[in-house]
Amino acid sequence: xxxxxxxxxxxxxxxxxxxxxxxxxxxxxxxxxxxxxxxxxxxxxxxxxxxxxxxxxxxxxxxxxxxxxxxxxxxxxxxxx
Length: 81
Hints:
The protein is an all-beta fold. About 0% of the residues lie in helices and about 70% in strands.
């Protein structure tokens, strides 16, 4: 699936991933290929993006995530790698 992690300052990540772990306001959750459409508010915490058995971790301060048609867009307030 395609994944984009964007802050107001820059694009932090854009590419293909097999899974994405996100810090939802009600707890951590995971997105896999062919996930149902979803919009979720995010709290501060780590976003873990798995690509080819490599995990990239980015700490965000909050934001929103949208999942639609095998594409995940994370709009974060700020991010630190």
